[in-house]
Structure to design on (381 residues):
């Protein structure tokens, strides 16, 4: 099976239970204000930022979603397939770049659903790869025996036959190897099988990662052994391309998955099995709605009034503001009511007219224009 989309089906083997249980929204003793009937999900790359530079008037646009006291006035979150660092750190970075306070709970990254696999792999040996700090991300989710693919590979001599030519990683690899010689490995990687592999963010060293993942996956979790049943493989997202600082689109995690799958299928008797998360899959948007509902309960100002039971009224509209028709707009369309899709021209999409295959409900030039439209539409409804 080449691709498996995971839905919430209890008590089934190899099933991911995707349920948001946020604990970072805080609480207060007073009664909440009347709920907003709408919420907003923003993509980041190509909508809010290009690289680390705010674009499209994003700082001004986001400030309009806060009250005079600086408290959250409109429930919104960042819904991105990116990642590589914990949500708490991403929230701090976004806040500093945009000049507003961002809660960790307002950041939903591609790998955020991995925390729901904790019951299955909490005490199992797993490996994680990607840019940033993939092992730290998984550790903060609660996984106790996680190694980065780089650290894992350092315990197997010559597993990457061209590592000596990679001057940009040689010192890090040497440091890791020398450390492992002085101390016992944190986990017994030479005899214990890897129970699952996680592609947390876009891999940096494709050659090494494809080689080592093929070794792990076709050997049943222990490189160098005979072919065994493949351990589970999880991708945080499956974007083929995304908009970064470079003028044209960059290859994303989906491109890496295609490369790995093509090679694995040529050298192994069974096709690669994997599970992909991230937009455009409908469960991502269902989870975003649950997070926004929590944010409804959180936003407040100095004048709280009694509104009875909160969380009982459904959203009339949820806005998805994105730049990638195949990811953001397709996902919102598939999720259906109450999602309303807005496509910006600041990222992957740059055309004058709407996208032919996945047309958005609205096309705008910038995120500032999108927020202006949302606030005017909601104030008149």
């Amino acid at each position: 099976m080449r691709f498996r989309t995971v839905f919430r089906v209890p008590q089934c083997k190899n099933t991911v239970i995707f349920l948001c249980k946020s604990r970072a929204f805080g609480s207060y003793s007073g009664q909440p204000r009347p709920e907003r009937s709408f919420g907003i999900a923003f993509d980041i790359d190509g909508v809010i930022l290009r690289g680390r530079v705010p674009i499209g008037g994003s700082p001004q646009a986001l400030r309009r979603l806060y009250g005079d006291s600086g408290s959250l006035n409109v429930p919104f979150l960042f819904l991105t397939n990116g990642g590589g660092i914990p949500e708490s750190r991403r929230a701090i970075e976004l806040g500093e770049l945009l000049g507003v306070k961002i809660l960790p709970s307002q950041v939903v990254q591609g790998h955020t659903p991995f925390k729901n696999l904790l019951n299955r792999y909490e005490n199992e040996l797993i490996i994680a790869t990607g840019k940033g700090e993939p092992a730290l991300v998984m550790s903060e989710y609660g996984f106790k025996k996680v190694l980065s693919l780089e650290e894992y590979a350092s315990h197997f001599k010559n597993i990457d036959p061209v590592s000596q030519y990679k001057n940009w990683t040689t010192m890090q690899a040497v440091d890791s190897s020398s450390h492992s010689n002085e101390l016992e490995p944190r986990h017994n990687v030479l005899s214990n099988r890897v129970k699952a592999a996680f592609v947390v963010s876009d891999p940096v060293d494709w050659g090494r990662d494809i080689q080592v993942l093929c070794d792990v996956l076709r050997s049943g979790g222990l490189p160098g052994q005979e072919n065994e049943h493949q351990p589970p493989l999880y991708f945080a997202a499956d974007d083929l391309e995304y908009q970064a600082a470079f003028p044209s689109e960059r290859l994303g995690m989906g491109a890496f998955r295609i490369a790995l799958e093509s090679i694995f299928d040529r050298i192994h008797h069974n096709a690669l099995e994997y599970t992909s998360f991230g937009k455009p899959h409908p469960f991502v948007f269902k989870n975003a709605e649950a997070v926004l509902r929590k944010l409804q309960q959180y936003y407040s100002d100095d004048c709280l009034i009694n509104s009875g039971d909160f969380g009982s009224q459904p959203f009339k509209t949820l806005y998805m503001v994105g730049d990638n028709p195949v990811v953001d707009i397709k996902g919102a369309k598939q999720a259906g009511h109450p999602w309303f899709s807005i496509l910006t021209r600041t990222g992957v999409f740059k055309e004058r007219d709407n996208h032919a295959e996945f047309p958005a409900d609205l096309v705008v030039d910038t995120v500032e224009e999108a927020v202006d439209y949302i606030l005017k539409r909601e104030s008149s409804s």
In short: The longest helix spans residues 282-298. The radius of gyration is 22 Å.
